Amino acid sequence: MLDVRRLHMLRTVAARGSIAAAAQSLALSAGAVSQQLAALRREVGVDLLRPDGRTVALTEAGQTLLLHADRILAAVQEAESAVAAVKGTVGATATLAALPSTVARIVAPALTALRADHPQLTVTCLVTDQAQLRELTLGAVDVVLGQRYHHLLDATPQGIELCPLLDDPLLVVTAADRADGRPVPLRELATHSLALPPPSTECGQAVRQACRQAGFTPAARYVTADIAAQLTLARTGLATALVPRTAIDPDTSGIRTAPIADHPILRLLYAATRRTETTDPTTAAVVAALRAATG
Prior knowledge:
Helix content is 40%, strand content 23%. The chain is an alpha/beta fold and 295 residues long.
């Protein structure tokens, strides 16, 4: 009989591209992962992996087994959720991945509420700019507080359930003495020195696409994904920034914010979980706390 843990390792190696990367994400040694994959190879009687430069790739047999592994692991997840639902109690641990821009206004209040309502639950929070939906599919995290910009393509993987939390508009941020707070036509920013996120980020792509729709290509004087740095550049009058509303402390001094008048840039904040037929009480409690924090 195939070992479910070994199937999970095979899927992780396929997703990470190497045994070393998979071992790191699984908190195991590369030798331990290699030994388990060798045992899986003996069980099926055919090579599952082949060298591919500095990485590894699945053989045809490995690809076939991975298709079945995905279904098997999904069934295991379904069984775990069903048993948890029957128990009806919130578990002891959960892992939440969240964007840095959501920590102050959403994550911290949500975790505070969870600590009061479910003191037995320990939530590990991973704060990262990197998209975590793949980590969710691999089982590395339980809930993702993520974002999707409305005018960008939806790239949600199969098997993921999204719970919309909040439409969060980007605001135009300038030094307090440089603007009056009126709505700003996006085209007006063509003459500004801008502080923008890198074009490789979702926010950077969304801003640049919106600017092109407004009839100009933005010239970023400063390129940074660090919102604190963007706000500092705006406060000192060096740049104009476009920052999500929830990422701005309303008590921040020295800046003025204004909505975009004509080409709004909206990000949908969502809580993502693995899709199951029955609801797991632990992930449901985390999602409920996030929803309450955005309400």
